[in-house]
Design a protein that fits this description.
elongated; Helicase, Ruva Protein, domain 3; 41% helix
Length: 280
């Protein structure tokens, strides 16, 4: 497969676009492994973001009922036409998924789906947040990304990597790194290694009184990491620090605690406290 992919790219005088983060994987064994990391079956529909040269698309089509691949580079269309020829369970859409509303997206994919992607590094967070905070029926996400970002998504509290995006992922489901990929596995090779992260959706949403407030609280908790948690949320929610100190003391939290020291359960507890505070 490798030679035919490169031949097709050469035939169409394709030039990799650094601005689009185009780094393709052509190793069949690795592609099949990434596809299997998604845990998708023949009953599943897969959404792929960034079809590239179609190498991962083909691997996904082997394990799933249907694959909807999105690709924003129109110069890849003739290449994908050749690569995906006679693959009846693949449909390619040349629109930017970040510009589609949930309603527009649902006219294309109208069932529960699994997201799998070798993500361009520069859109990792926007793509991730676009799906985990949407109303779309996303079953899971399996994403190839910069290794350091993968560590942030799967971090534990009280570690340097832990942040707002870690908690945003935890609200959606359970994240784990399934494999590390050396930079030499890509063409052209990026300057960093990658990792595959699998995020399985929770069986039930988190038990919180106000999910929008919880998301806001998480963002506020990491707004300025050098400041205490009370200072951050006092500024964000316009609540007197003395009120928060009293409430934190009743919940057995130190007034000096910082956002990175709190787990998701802690954030939920504090969010519910703020909700109750509004009603008093």
């Amino acid at each position: 497969m490798n030679k035919s992919v490169f031949d097709i790219l050469k035939q169409h005088k394709f030039k990799f676009k650094k601005l689009l983060g185009q780094n393709f994987i052509t190793d069949t064994n690795l592609l099949n492994s990434i596809a299997l990391d998604s845990n998708a079956t023949k009953d599943d529909t897969i959404v792929e973001i960034g079809a590239g040269a179609g190498t991962l698309t083909i691997a996904l089509s082997e394990i799933a009922k249907a694959v909807y691949a999105f690709e924003i580079d129109p110069q890849l269309k003739p290449i994908l036409d050749i690569m995906l020829k006679n693959r009846s369970n693949i449909k390619v859409d040349y629109r930017d998924v970040l510009r589609l509303s949930d309603k527009e997206f649902s006219t294309i994919v109208n069932s529960e789906f699994v997201v799998v992607s070798n993500l361009p590094y520069y859109i990792t967070t926007p793509i991730l947040m676009r799906f985990i905070e949407s109303s779309l029926p996303v079953k899971s996400l399996t994403l190839t990304m910069q290794k350091e970002v993968a560590y942030r998504l799967t971090a534990r509290h009280n570690t340097p990597e832990y942040g707002a995006i870690t908690l945003a992922v935890q609200l959606f489901g359970n994240a784990k790194i399934t494999r590390i990929i050396n930079r030499t596995s890509f063409r052209p090779s990026p300057i960093v290694d990658s990792a595959v992260v699998n995020i399985e959706r929770r069986n039930a949403p988190v038990d919180v009184k106000d999910i929008k407030q919880l998301r806001r609280l998480i963002h506020s908790g990491f707004a300025m990491r050098r400041k205490t948690f009370i200072n951050n949320i006092s500024a964000s929610f316009c609540i007197p620090k003395e009120t928060l100190r009293s409430g934190f003391e009743s919940m057995n939290y130190s007034e000096m605690i910082r956002g990175e020291a709190l787990s998701l359960d802690d954030y939920i507890r504090i969010s519910d406290y703020l909700t109750d505070l509004k009603t008093k």
